C-alpha cells in the first residue's frame, strides 16, 4: 500500500505516536544510538550536552532530587540524571522504546533507573511528586493538546519546580525540510497553519507531528501555572557537524531549528 505524507487534520486523541514509536523502537535504537549515546543528555540535533551547558542547573544540586523525564525514549537522559545521584524516572508512551532502553542499559552495564510506559497527559504519579521535569525532543512535538500536557506536568511537580524542554522550533515548519536548502530557503506554509504533519498508509495515519507556535507554548504554560524563565534558540555546538533529518549546521545559521524553554511552576 502506498505511503503518503502532508499536512492535514486528524482526529484528536488518536494514539498515532504510541503505535509509531512502539513498532519502530528497535530500528530507532539501531539508527540513532551513536548520535544519542547511552547515558548522556543531549538536548537536540545541535549537540549540546547537559554535562557542559547545565541547563538543568548545577549537577551537585541534583543529587537526591525527584526528577522525571517526559518522553524518555531509550532513557539516556534519565540515566544521566541517575548518575548524578538524582532519583530519576523516565516515561514514554511507547512500550517498545522502554523495552529497548532497559535492554540497552543491561547490555552496557549502565545505570538502570525506572523507565515506565505511560501517556504524558495521564502520568501515573501523585500530585507534587517531582522537583524537576525535563524533555529532550520527547513528547512535546507529538502531543496535540499542549494545555493537557503542561497541566499534567504541573500537577506532578512541586510548587517552585522547573519544567525544561526542547522541541522543534516552530519556525522550522515555515520552510522546506531539506537540510541543504540554505541559500534561499523556500517558504512552504504559513507559520499560523497548525495542521500537523501526517504520514498515511492508505487511509490510516501512521505518524503525526504537531505544530505549536511560540504563542501556543506561552499560553499553555501560563494556563498551567508556569512562568517562563529562559528561552533559547541554540545554534550548533562547537565541533558538531552532523546533519540530522532537517537540521544542519548551515541551516542553523539562517534560522533556529530547536526551541528550549525553561519554566518555573508558581
Automatic annotation (TrEMBL):
Keywords: Methyltransferase, Transferase, Ubiquinone. SUPFAM superfamilies: S-adenosyl-L-methionine-dependent methyltransferases. Residues 69-164 form the Methyltransferase type domain. PANTHER family: METHYLTRANSFERASE, N6-ADENOSINE-METHYLTRANSFERASE TMT1A. This is Ubiquinone/menaquinone biosynthesis C-methylase UbiE. GO terms for biological process: methylation. GO terms for molecular function: S-adenosylmethionine-dependent methyltransferase activity.
Amino acid at each position: 500500500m502506498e505511503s503518503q505524507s502532508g499536512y492535514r487534520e486528524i482526529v484528536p486523541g488518536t494514539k498515532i505516536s504510541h503505535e509509531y514509536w512502539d513498532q519502530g523502537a528497535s530500528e530507532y535504537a539501531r539508527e540513532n544510538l551513536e548520535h544519542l549515546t547511552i547515558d548522556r543528555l543531549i538536548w537536540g540535533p545541535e549537540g549540546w550536552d547537559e554535562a557542559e551547558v547545565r541547563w538543568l542547573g548545577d549537577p551537585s544540586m541534583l543529587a537526591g532530587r525527584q526528577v522525571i523525564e517526559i518522553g524518555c525514549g531509550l532513557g539516556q537522559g534519565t540515566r544521566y540524571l541517575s548518575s548524578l545521584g538524582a532519583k530519576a524516572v523516565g516515561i514514554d508512551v511507547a512500550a517498545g522504546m522502554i523495552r529497548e532502553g532497559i535492554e540497552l542499559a543491561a547490555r552496557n552495564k549502565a545505570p538502570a533507573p525506572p523507565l515506565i510506559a505511560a501517556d504524558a497527559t495521564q502520568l501515573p504519579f501523585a500530585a507534587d511528586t517531582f522537583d524537576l521535569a525535563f524533555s529532550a525532543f520527547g513528547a512535546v512535538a507529538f502531543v496535540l493538546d499542549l494545555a493537557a500536557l503542561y497541566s499534567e506536568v504541573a500537577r506532578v511537580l512541586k510548587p517552585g519546580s522547573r519544567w525544561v524542554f526542547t522541541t522543534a522550533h516552530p519556525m522550522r515548519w515555515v520552510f522546506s525540510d531539506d537540510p541543504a536548502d540554505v541559500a534561499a530557503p523556500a517558504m512552504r506554509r504559513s507559520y499560523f497553519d497548525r495542521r500537523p504533519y501526517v504520514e498515511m498508509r492508505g487511509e490510516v495515519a501512521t505518524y503525526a507531528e504537531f505544530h505549536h507556535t511560540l504563542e501556543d507554548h506561552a499560553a499553555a504554560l501560563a494556563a498551567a501555572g508556569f512562568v517562563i524563565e529562559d528561552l533559547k534558540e541554540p545554534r550548533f555546538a562547537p565541533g558538531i557537524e552532523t546533519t540530522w533529518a532537517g537540521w544542519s549546521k548551515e541551516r542553523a545559521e539562517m534560522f533556529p531549528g530547536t526551541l528550549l524553554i525553561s519554566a518555573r511552576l508558581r
